[in-house]
Amino acid sequence: MLPPLKKFGSSVDMGLVVALNTANNKEFSGSANPSISDGQNNASAVELSNYPNPFNPTTTIYYRIPKDGKVDIKVFDALGREVKTLVNENKTAGKYSIEFDASHLASGIYFYSIHAGEYSAVKKMILLK
């Protein structure tokens, strides 16, 4: 659990905590590159990245899941409100990608999360218009 927030005077601080809590405080080993690794280094973790970042108005989210199962990928705004569900279905283990179109959204920081079985991760992306 994250420590309580000190008063920073910003609702963005609380939004960040909400988005990060969405990941259930699980450890994550992700790839900084736009493509996902072949999984030989850490085959038991979910991997998640997006490219380009910052983006306008679309970005591609790349992810790898180590086991078959239900996968949820959601996008949240800086206040922790869900903006869009990108994936909500059963997937086989492997590498995938999905395009996120944010043309209807305002510029700002957004978070995207993945839940795949017992694994989860949260990443940040920036929309610049």
Any overview of this molecule?
- The strands form 2 sheets. A 4-stranded antiparallel sheet has the order 4-3-6-7, covered by helices on one side.
- It has 129 residues and is mainly beta.
- It contains 1 helix and 7 strands; from the N terminus they run αβββββββ.
- It has a single domain, classed as Immunoglobulin-like, CATH 2.60.40.
- Strand 6 and strand 7 (119-127) form a beta hairpin.
Main attributes of the structure:
four-stranded antiparallel sheet; Immunoglobulin-like; disordered N terminus; mainly beta; 129 residues; single chain; three-stranded antiparallel sheet
Structural class: mainly beta
Largest sheet: 4 strands, antiparallel
CATH homologous superfamily annotation: Macroglobulin (MG2) domain
Tally of contiguous helical segments: 1
Domain tally: 1
Sheet with the most strands: spatial strand order: 4-3-6-7
Uncertain segments are 1-20, 22-40
CATH architecture: Sandwich
Brief account:
The protein has 129 residues and is mostly beta strands. It has one helix and seven strands, in the order αβββββββ. 26% of the residues are buried.
Topology of helices and strands:
Blueprint: H1 11-21, E1 47-51, E2 58-65, E3 69-76, E4 82-91, E5 94-101, E6 108-116, E7 119-127
Antiparallel strand pairs: 1-2, 2-5, 3-4, 3-6, 6-7
